[in-house]
Model the fold of this input.
Amino acid sequence: MLRGFTRVASLAVKAQLPVLRNAPQAIRVAQVRLSHVEVFGPFDPPKQLTFKDVESRVLKAIRAWDRFPVDKEAQLKIDADFNKDLGFDSLDHVEIMMAVEDEFGFEIPLEDSEKLKTPKDVFKYICEREDVYN
Done:
């Protein structure tokens, strides 16, 4: 795109259009300024997730669910069954999956979410989907 602009501007200068007489210098300045493009902007690239990060974020998302019962806090472990140990029904399960989706920024298909019976299942699913390997 910049080459096309450079070519048009140089042709305009050669044609002695009064508006673009100083265009070559402006183009050189633009080329210098546009020569360095940052892919991620001023921020660092996303950091690779670790197993520990995923596990803590899964449990954090479940605890942050607005209807999480405070009395179940001690029972919430990575191996706890949503239904048997924590007493969550199917609607609770859907809402928990939505909380996890919000935490990790992607949607879990319904067919997959129905198979996720424990926080450990959710942990494994996310690690597989996000290529977490350490």
